[in-house]
Amino acid sequence: MGFSTIAIHAGNEPDSATGAVSVPIYQTSTYAQEGLGKHKGFEYARTHNPTRLALEKNIAALEGAKFGFAFASGMSATDAVLKLVKAGDHVILGDNTYGGTYRLFSRVLVDYGVEFDLVDTTDAVNIERAFKPNTKMVFVETPTNPVMSVTDLRAVSEIAHAHGSRVVCDNTFMSPYLQRPMDFGVDIVVHSTTKYLNGHSDSIGGFVALNDETDAEWIGFIQNSIGAILSPFDSFLVLRGTKTLAVRMEAHDRNGRAVAAFLAEHPRVQRVYYPGLQSHPQFEIASRQQRGFGGMVAFETGSLENAKKVLESVKLCTLAESLGGVESLISHPATMTHASIPLEKRQTLGISDGLIRISVGIEDIEDIIADLDQALL
Ligand SMILES: *Cc1c(COP(=O)(O)O)cnc(C)c1O
Fold first, then answer.
1. Which secondary structure element, helix H or strand E, spans residue 356, and what is its range?
2. DSSP helix, strand, coil percent of the chain (3-state; round to 5)
3. Fewer beta carbons under 10 A from the terminal one: N or C of the chain?
4. Can 103 be counted among the known catalytic residues?
5. For residue 257, what are the domain limits?
6. Are 259 and 284 within one domain?
7. What is the tally of structural domains in the chain?
8. Using one digit for the tens of pLDDT, what is the confidence trace for 95-128?
C-alpha cells in the first residue's frame, strides 16, 4: 500500500465498541476487569491506552518499523533510546544535533557514565575514525538544524554495523514521508512529533520506531517504568495530523524549494542553506536518500543588524522557535534555538549572527515570498 493509504488507515480501525470511524480519545486512567486476571488487554493507562496504541501502530507503519512507542516529548523519546546504553558505553553523536539532544548528553548523561564524542558525520571517514572498543551507538540527525547538513545514512549504517553498533536517526526534519531511515539500514528512528508529524503547532510529543525485538522490549519497559507517555488527547491530535502528512509535506517541500530559489537570487542574501540547491555540499546524498527537500531553509544576511531588520519586518511569517507547522515561522538561531551553544562552536557550525531560519509553511507561496521580499528591502 502507498504512503497516504497507510497514513490514513494504519492503526485507524473503526472503534470496536461503537464503530466510531475516528479513534476516540480514551481519557481514562484505568480499565474495569471482568475477574481476577481477566481483562481486555488494558489494565492501567500508563502501560496501555487505545488512543496511544493506535498512534503507535500508525507511525511505526509510516517508518516501516515493527514497533513504535509514543512519548511525552521528542526529548523523552531520545532519552528512552539513550537508556539502551549503559555506564561505560560510548556514543558517537553528530556535532550538529538539536540543542536539547546535545544538552542531554553533555549535562545529564555524563553524570551517569555515558561517554560521547561529537563528530562531523557528513564525512563517513570521521565516523569510522571515532569508533572505540566501547562504542555502542551512533546518533545522527539529517538534515541538521539550522544549516541543513546531510549525513549519508547507508554509509553510517554500514560502518556502525561492522563495529557491532546501533544507528539512531532523528528524523524530525524530514518526517517519514520525505525520508525513511530504516530503508538505509538505520536501526532506530526518533521523532519530535511536535513538528511535522503533528503539523499544527498545538502539541508536544515524541516517538521511537524500531525493528529489533529485544531493544523494543526494553524501550517499552522504559516507557512504562519512567512513564513519559503521550497523553490520549495528544495521541489523538498527532493521529489526526499524520492523516494529512503526505499532502502537507508535498506542500512544505514545494514552498521550501520556491523560497530557497527566491533567496538564492536575492542580492541581500549572501548564502542559502537548503539541500535542494545544487550549491549545497550534500545535494547528491540528499537527492538520493530523501523523497524531497522539505520546508526548512536558512540564509545568511551578513550581520546581526540585517537579520534583526528582516525578523522585525516580516508580517506573515511569525517570529517564533519550533518548526513543522502549517504556518510559516521565522527565527534567529544565534539568539534563540542555539543561544546555549558557545560562540566559537556556533561559528564553526556556520550559525552566525546574520543567520535566519525559516520553517516554510503551506500558505500560498506568493504571499510567503512577498512577505520575505518586503522584509529584505
Ligand atoms: C524539537 C526537536 C527535538 C525535541 O523535541 P521536543 O518535542 O521539543 O521535546 C528533537 N530533535 C529535533 C530535530 C527537533 O527539532
1. strand 355-359
2. 40, 15, 45
3. C
4. no
5. 246-375
6. yes
7. 2
8. 989 989 999 999 999 999 999 999 999 999 999 9
Distance 103 CA to ligand 1 centre (A): 12
What is the side-by-side order of every strand in the sheet holding 188-192?
67-71, 206-210, 188-192, 166-170, 135-141, 90-94, 115-119
**C-alpha 101 to ligand 1 mean position (Å):** 8
Residues near 189 by Cβ (< 8 Å), separated by ≥ 6? 63, 65, 168, 169, 170, 171, 176, 181, 182, 207, 208, 209, 210
Specify whether 51 is located in the same domain as 143.
yes
Find the catalytic residue in 98, 102, 177, 196. Answer: 98
Query: Position 82: which residue type?
Result: L
Same-domain pairing of 250 and 238: no
Please tell me whether residues 252 and 194 are part of one structural domain.
no
Q: Are residues 177 and 259 in the same domain?
A: no
Quick check: 286 pLDDT over 80? yes
Q: What is the CATH number of the domain that holds 325?
A: 3.90.1150.10
Cell of 174: 524530514
User: Which of 243, 277, 297 is a domain's end point?
Assistant: 243
Determine contact, residues 102/244, Cβ cutoff 8 Å.
no
What single-letter amino acid sits at 97? T
- The answer to whether residues 8 and 148 belong to one domain is yes
CATH number at residue 99: 3.40.640.10
Residue 216 grid cell: 523494543
